[in-house]
Structure formats: C-alpha cells, structure tokens
Model the fold of this input.
Amino acid sequence: MDEVLADALGELIRRYNQEFEEHLTVADMWGHWMVEVLPPSRHDRLMAYLHADDFFDDLAVIPESQRVLERLSRRFEIFVATAAMEFPKSFGPKYRWLQRHFPFLSPSHFVFCGDKSILRADYLIDDMPRHFERFHGTGVLFTAAHNARLQAPLRVKDWLEVEELFFPD
Done:
C-alpha cells in the first residue's frame, strides 16, 4: 500500500519540513531511505511521525492508481496487502483510507500482514524487493525513492506502466 497506492514519503517530508522549517523534496531522497539523508539527531522524530495516530489517515493517493486498479479489478481479483505489523496503530487508518479511496475494492481483500509471502497470487506489485524473496508469483518492483537504484527483473515506474503491463494493447 505505502509508496504504491499511498504517498507515505510525501507525508513524511511534509511533516519534517513543517517541523524543522526545511525544504526537502523527494528528489533529495532519490536512491536513499529518508534516515540516510537526515541527520541522526532527527531519526527519532522521523519514527515518531510514522507511529503517530493520524499519520496514515490522510496520505495522498499515488497518481493514476485509482483509475488503473479499478480497470484491473474488472478483469482480475485484486488484493491489497500492507505490512501493517510494523506500525500497529496504522490498521484502522489504513483500512479507512482504502475504503475512502478505493471503494470499488472489497474490504475482504485488504490483507494486513507482516510477511507478504503468505499471499498466493500471480503478481505482487510492491516497493520493497524483500517481499519477493519467498513470494511464489511474479514480483513487480514499483519505483519509489528508496529503491530507485536497485536492480529488478521487472520494474514499473508508475501506474501507467502497470496498466501497460497488464493491458499491452
């Protein structure tokens, strides 16, 4: 979900810039995790943002994800998996966020887990290559700032490329 459907990095940057009166951008993060860019003295604040009760409530939607997923849902069975175990306070906000922004998906297809290898699917579109290691289907790396320099057998840069992958015309 995060960095594939929901712009968590954008919200982290927004909160950081607001608190510290800085002007970080996604481009500043390209090829790095945010903790690699920030001074170590501010890492605790970064984690505090992620653990805040309201962090996952209002994340921006990744462009074109709604339209493309709705199109995909007419042909395929779609499950949204999120590694919510890392941030236990995120369950409710993520569930509500998915219902609000992706009402055409069944809540019974929202999977809150820690290890995505439990999924038995043909494809897994994810920003974290570690989720592909034990996944039995095809992993599709969705480009995000933190994975920009990693190699992947199959990578998409955005939802338009996801659409091309599944509807090559």
Notes: The mean pLDDT is 95. The radius of gyration is 16 Å. The CA atoms of residues 99 and 106 lie 8 Å apart.
